[in-house]
Each structure stands twice: as structure tokens, then as C-alpha cells.
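ok so dumb question maybe but i'm new to this and my supervisor (M.) told me to 'just get the structure for Anti-sigma factor antagonist' and walked off. so i did the thing. is this what she meant?? sequence i used:
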Amino acid sequence: MDEQLCSEKWVDRVAIVSASGELDMLTAPQLRDAVQSALSQNPAGLIVDLTDVEFLGSAGMQVLMEAHNQTGGTETRFAVVAEGSATSRPLKITGIADLIDLFSSLDEAVENLTA
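this is what came out, is it supposed to look like this??
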């Protein structure tokens, strides 16, 4: 199993947390920590980029919903970048895609949140 890595970068006041590898119950806490770290800096927006994620399990989706719930009612906008069967498909099947802003590319998400 590859170690799942999370990285954080910023575009203006939008935090981008990128994950790669498998996002399951063993690696989801790393994503949770990265999301919490970004949110603690009071960003105008938070994007979770799942472009390089090969598997998105329920624990990873739970982290996304927690971030959605945390940013709801605040000034921080929240979006997820997911494209393809490994990431966008499970989000659509579970109905999460109906609740969160889902983009197929990071550029599109950044453009939307920084506009």
C-alpha cells in the first residue's frame, strides 16, 4: 500500500489540500488533519483536490462531508475536485455530489472560488 500524501498550497486566500493514492480508513485521518490545518488559517475558500486519488473509500468521503459541514454557514467556500470513476463516481452514487461543489479540474475550482 502506498502511503497517502496530502499537501497544502494557497492561491490568494484559497487553500488547496491535495491528496494522492488511496483514501481509506487508514489514510483519511491524514486528509482530516490537512483540512483542519488549512481551515485553522481562516481561508476564503477550501478546495480538496482528489485528482491523484486512486481509491476513495467511505472514510475519505466522511472527511469531505465533515469539511462541508464545518464550512457551511461560514464565509469559507468549499469545493472538491474529482474526475473519473475512482473519485467522482462514488461521490455521485452516495449523493455527496449533490451537497458539495464538485469540479472536474483544479483550475476550474480555483477560478470559481477566487472569482
